[in-house]
Amino acid sequence: MAQTTVKSEKITLPLNKILNGECIEQMKKIPSRSIDMIFADPPYNLQLQGELNRPDNSKVDAVDDDWDKFASFAEYDKFCKEWLIEARRILKDDGTIWVIGSYHNVFRLGTIIQDLGFWILNDIVWNKTNPMPNFRGRRFCNAHETLIWASKSEKSKYRFNYDAMKAMNEDKQMRSDWNLPLCTGPERLKDDEGKKAHPTQKPESLLYRVILSSTDVDDVILDPFFGTGTTGAVAKKLGRKYIGIERDKEYVAHATQRLKEITSGDDASLLKHIEKRSEPRVPFGQVVEQGMLPPGTTLFDHTHRYTAKVRSDGHIVARNHTGDHKGSIHQVGATLQGLPSCNGWTFWHFESKGKTWPIDVLRQEIRQHMEN
Predict the structure, then answer these.
(1) Domain boundary among 227, 250, 277
(2) What whole-number distance in Å separates Cα of residue 17 and Cα of residue 21?
(3) What's residue 69's pLDDT?
(4) Which of 107, 148, 207, 228 is deepest in the core (most CB within 10 A)?
(5) 224 and 292 share a domain?
(6) CATH number of the domain to which 98 belongs
(7) Residue 13 to residues 10, 18, 19, 226: CA-CA distances in angstroms?
């Protein structure tokens, strides 16, 4: 992570740096097809009319900065189309983009994203567990934001770390509704007067899930609306590289100081996650032919309710009240249980040295030999 530039086929990137300037102008300087993932938190275009007050007439610290003001929807759409065109140009063919927004802008963004040829993979609902209340009492409490996740095209072979997301969700498939709190407490950056340094600072937990789900260690992540640097902070902790673009010098100063205080995650053994789908394929027959489970070995499930015998061709055969069942470890396991599918590697077990083991340990042993 100490290196600040990378050169590959004459491509040079300002890695782990914040570029101070307008996002479109700075993105034009980035080489085409050089970025693995983009996270964008563009202006909301809230169209606020006057001050927003609480019932006690105190002023709500709302988003009223100049960067969120546009003369019309047409002007906002033109701006978004221009930066999204640049985003698609600099994204690698198999890269993805995340764009977050509220009801004020996310539907306009979604239309432009599709019109430009991106392929939407998911829309994620960030349910805020501690949302700001609706003080006027004339609308529902706005308690969520939407993230659009899209690949560069329909044919992109994008990255999705399914197993990592499942592990984070107590071994259950990660859903598209994420219950996470707003950025509060010590995580919220403050200025010299004790006020919020940035009105829409995102929580690190949100970016953690985004980055972990769709990138790998050493991937390059671009944030064209860097703000106070949440994307860079999480990228640094997870061993990714970042490029931030931010026009406000005060935000750049806050982000720079924030990033200096973060220790880079550089233990690849802890940061690297291997997806099961990307691991080398090992047929059960290879376990048999290597003598790890000779023909005639008895296999059984963890309850010993079902048993089967290993055949010389890598199939197994089992018998129950409906007759003999021959096939792969997956087919036979599913048939005996009356299920449409079964992971035979984890369903079937064997006994060795007085202990019971899932046959998957033998597959992992073969994979280790492949790597060595």
Answers:
(1) 277
(2) 13
(3) 75
(4) 228
(5) no
(6) 3.40.50.150
(7) 10, 12, 11, 17
Closest C-alpha among 305, 313, 316 to residue 359: 316
Q: Does pLDDT of 312 surpass 50?
A: yes
**Segments of 181-270 assigned E as strands:** 220-223, 241-246
C-alpha 214/C-alpha 319 separation (Å) is 44
pLDDT tens digits, 9-26? 567 899 999 999 999 999
Question: Is residue 317 domain-shared with residue 239, that is, in the same domain?
Answer: no
Sheet holding 144-151, edge to edge: 17-20, 241-246, 220-223, 35-40, 91-101, 144-151, 119-128, 177-180
> Are residues 294 and 214 part of one domain?
no
Q: How far apart are CA 20 and CA 22, in angstroms?
A: 7
Same domain, 194 and 303: no
Return mean pLDDT, the chain.
89
The dihedrals phi and psi of 205, each to the nearest 5 degrees, come to -60, -35
Using the structure block, give the residue that is written with the tokens 């040829």: 117
Residues near 308 by Cβ (< 8 Å), separated by ≥ 6? 298, 299, 300, 316, 317, 318, 332, 348
Instruction: Please enumerate in sequence order all residues whose Cβ is within 8 A of that of 138, keeping only pairs 6 or more positions apart, or say none.
Output: none
Host domain of residue 310: 279-371
**DSSP per-residue string spanning 334-361:** HHHHT-S---HHHH-EEEETTEEEETHH
Q: Is the pLDDT of residue 3 over 90?
A: no
Q: Based on the domain organization, do 115 and 175 belong to the same domain? A: yes
Give how many domains the chain has, as a whole number: 2
The one-letter amino acid code at 180 reads: L
Question: Which residue's entry shows tokens 């019309």?
Answer: 72
pLDDT of residue 8: 44
pLDDT top residue among 157 and 187? 157
pLDDT at residue 235, rounded to an integer: 96
Residues 270 and 304 in one domain: no
Give the contacts of 324 (CB within 8 A, at least 6 positions apart). Answer: 317, 318
* Among candidate residues 277, 309, 331, the one where a domain is terminated: 277
**256 lies in the same domain as 363:** no
